[in-house]
Each structure stands twice: as structure tokens, then as C-alpha cells.
């Protein structure tokens, strides 16, 4: 029986056997090596978001910190898509955790929601354009 992650997250982000298997109730469950740590990273930083760091630091610094934590995953995706390095699940786990932390930090930055949306849409569109240009020719 597929897990909730298999049904919801895996079809959108996982391919080429990027899973790790955990036995739950004696049954093997597959989890995406990027999405699962991303969820854990997001929840872990939410626990610390009430610290003075978030309240004493300016919104633009927090937003830049969040984007910097997202960049390793974007860069790793790009270099693996270009076949410059082999894709390793261990790196996907670390990058997924940082991605989850970065998304939450960026979301909690005290900058305009319009700026957050524009930055997010721009990154998303750049990734779609890059993915279309980098698809292997059949």
C-alpha cells in the first residue's frame, strides 16, 4: 500500500529511483529522498521561528538567508540535469532539508507579499525554462 507521500509528493518530484525505504508495521514504505527531508526541514525551522533572530533581523536579510538555503538544491538540480555529476540520494536528502528550511525562512521574512510572490514566480519560471532547454534529446 503506497504511503501518503507516494500518492501526493512523489509523482511531482521523484524519478529515477530517488527513494529510501522504511519498514513500517513490517511493510516497506518508499519515501522521496528530497520531499521527505524538505517537510522535516520546514517543520524543524518552524519550531525556531519564534526566536529573536526572526524579530531582530531585517526582512531583507531573512529573505536573502532563505534564498541562500534554497540555492544548493537549485544548483545541484542544474548540474545533475546537465549530467556534470551523478545524482546521489544522500545529497538529495541534505538539499531537501535545507530547501524546507529555506522556504519557511523566506516565507516568514517581513517583506512585501508581492515581492515574495514575484521572486517565487521568477524562480519557478526560470526552472521551467531551464528544464525545457535541458531535456535530453530522444
State the gist of this model:
The chain has 138 residues and is mainly alpha-helical. It has helices at residues 4-8, 10-13, 35-48, 52-56, 59-81, 89-108, 113-134, and strands spanning 19-24, 27-32.
Describe the structure.
This protein has a two-stranded antiparallel ribbon. With 138 residues, it is mainly α. The longest helix has 23 residues. The protein contains 7 helices and 2 strands, in the order H-H-E-E-H-H-H-H-H. It is 67% helix and 9% strand.
Helical content stands at: 55-70%
Largest sheet geometry: 2 strands, antiparallel
Summed over residues and divided by their number, the pLDDT gives a mean of 77
The shape is flat
Distance separating the two termini: 34 Å
Question: How do the strands of the widest beta sheet line up side by side?
Answer: 1-2
- Beta-strand level of the residues, as a percent range? 5-15%
> Unreliable runs, pLDDT <50, ≥5 residues?
none
Radius of gyration (Å): 17 Å
Overall number of strands: 2
Structural class: mainly alpha
| Number of contiguous helices | 7
The topology string of helices and strands comes to HHEEHHHHH
Amino acid at each position: 500500500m503506497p504511503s501518503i507521500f507516494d500518492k501526493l509528493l512523489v509523482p511531482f518530484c521523484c524519478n529515477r529511483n530517488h527513494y529510501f525505504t522504511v519498514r513500517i508495521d513490517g511493510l516497506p514504505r518508499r519515501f522521496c529522498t528530497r520531499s521527505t527531508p524538505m517537510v522535516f526541514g520546514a517543520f524543524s525551522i518552524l519550531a525556531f521561528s519564534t526566536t529573536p533572530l526572526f524579530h531582530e533581523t531585517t526582512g531583507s536579510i531573512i529573505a536573502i538567508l532563505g534564498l541562500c538555503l534554497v540555492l544548493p538544491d537549485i544548483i545541484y538540480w542544474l548540474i545533475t540535469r546537465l549530467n556534470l555529476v551523478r545524482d546521489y540520494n544522500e545529497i538529495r536528502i541534505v538539499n531537501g532539508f535545507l530547501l524546507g528550511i529555506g522556504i519557511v525562512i523566506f516565507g516568514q521574512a517581513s517583506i512585501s507579499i508581492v515581492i515574495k510572490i514575484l521572486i517565487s514566480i521568477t524562480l519557478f519560471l526560470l526552472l521551467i525554462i531551464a528544464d525545457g532547454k535541458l531535456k535530453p534529446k530522444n
